[in-house]
Please model this.
Amino acid sequence: MGALGLALVAALLFGASTPASKLLIANIPPFQLAGLLYLGAALGTLPAALRDRARSGAQHGRRPLDAANLRRLWGSIVLGGIVGPVLVLLALQRADSSSVALLLNLEMAATAALGVACFREHLGRSGWSGVCLGLAAGAAVSLQGGWPGASAGLLVGGACVAWGLDNHLTALIDALSPAQATVCKGVVAGGFNFGLGLLLEPVSLALVDGLLAGLVGVLCYGLSIVLYIVSAQHLGATRAQVAFASAPFLGAGLSFVFLGESLGWEHLLAAGLLAAGVLLLVLDRHEHEHEHPALEHVHSHRHDDGHHEHAHDGQAAPRRHTHRHRHERQVHAHRHLPDLHHRHRH
Model:
């Protein structure tokens, strides 16, 4: 299967988590379910994390996380692993899974707006138009259902803000691979949510329900993340994200097919608005002369992107690989997106 196919499979798996969680939350309280989902994600991502740890250790030895990366990791755990999933599960108690699935595309708008406000990203006219279309789509879905729909919309909106912050914090972690960060998040956040759920409500978890929740976590969170990372290493993050942005629509489609939920005009309107908004956000780029200060970090990269020109002991570097490397100061101009090397004001 090609890289684009892997990205679409990742989107399908993540999209399936919404209707699957809708079924599970009828028998499992929200905090306990959120814990099981993220513990499953940690289990599903563990093999890739161990592989990344072995490669990094063999090449550069073990290095402890610095204070900045520790803050980013803990912020990612609290916001992305604890706050976000619990808010979505509470929303699923108030609204059908198809509406919640479509509303989850607000995450891209939240990520873009937060990037400008807090993380030194640039957003042009096209990008702001995409954010506005995303907000309009959320209003079309949430307000149609009256107060239950509006309250669910607010909960999903809060989750998308939490996950938007999580996206930026995770993207700035340059001492761990994405798989390693996901395992840390899954173990800590999953354990916290499940433990808190046991304190809030008595244990009434059937073994079958617990195993199914863990399986959803392994496939729809853990495996989905691994497949997305593999696809992004071949397609580039932007093209992979375009494919992965189909996840909410796939989740809504699965809800219509398997849960028998009705398809209304508000779903069609929201789908169209969200699709247009995603396209505008992806197309929004800019170009100017900018400076890269000297730094050292770890991330997946290739040597033909104009930013990675370090040597590999006289050997040809793999097309895409991950290791700790150092950048010297560089000044140049090109079209760019706000990745690890392009977070600046101008």
